[in-house]
Write a structure and sequence with these properties.
This protein has a twelve-stranded antiparallel beta barrel with strand order 1-4-5-6-7-8-9-10-11-12-13-14. A two-stranded antiparallel ribbon has the order 2-3. It is mainly β and about 270 residues long. It has helices at about 10-15, 25-35, 50-60, and strands at about 70-80, 85, 85-90, 95-105, 105-115, 125-135, 145-150, 165-175, 180-185, 190-200, 205-215, 225-235, 240-250, 260-265. The chain has one domain (about 10-265): monomeric porin ompg (Porin, Beta Barrel), CATH 2.40.160.40. Helices cover about 10% and strands about 45% of the residues. Helix 1 (about 10-15) crosses helix 2 (about 25-35).
Length: about 270
Amino acid sequence: MHKTAPFRLQAILDRDFGSKRSDSRAILGLALHLRSGSKTGNYTMKTKVSRAGVALVALLATAGTAMAEGEWSGNVAMTSDYTWRGVSQSNEDPAIQGGFDYANGSFYAGTWASNVDFGDDSDTNIEADFYGGFAGAFANGMSWDVGVIYYAYPDADESDLDFVEIKGALGYEFASGLAIGGEAYWDPDNQNVYLNATAGYGLSDVLSIDASVGNYSFDGGGDYTNWSLGTTYSTPVGIDVDLRYWGTDVDDVDISDDRFVLTFSKSL
């Protein structure tokens, strides 16, 4: 799993309540809302009893002793701005990222990490994701993927930023080379839903273009839409160079402004 970049924005809530703020603390507040589902104003913070976390443990246990029979891979990346669902997670600063993946038949599992900067009182600097699931293809060639993702912030002091999402995805590649897909992510503890549609096309063996449109819906209000358009070039030395434009419909918040993000990544 290579995560292309949320930040929890209180400003998203501010948009609906008519209180626009562009200072850094408001920006970081939005990021925290996206991450943890914490609510302010007319909302109350939900106690996070991660039922889906139990599902992730059960999912990983499914691999059992067969772990040694599968294949391992890794990835590393440097990006100019860790952007996730249209919002900067690194306060618009560069980030170093990487992870390891395991696959055995239809089963997969892995971990991925990045530096983050929410600029809030949690003082967290690390995000570590753990995920697992099953993926395959139907007889008609349509791909499918179901899994669980646990987002952890181990150095977040006493702040509870961790959350879990359950994922479902479908995809199809036409004979022309055009690939389309749809993804749904559900946070059962905070009742948040993220829907994403993607399309991509390989211009050559080393150059491709893709686009996405996503919508983040929150149980407490403050929904927003994001979009991206990017191109990826695979260099002869095995390094992928990705240049991507991100945009959202969130106004007056620096970390959700339109931006270009440059990422260098390599599979191991």
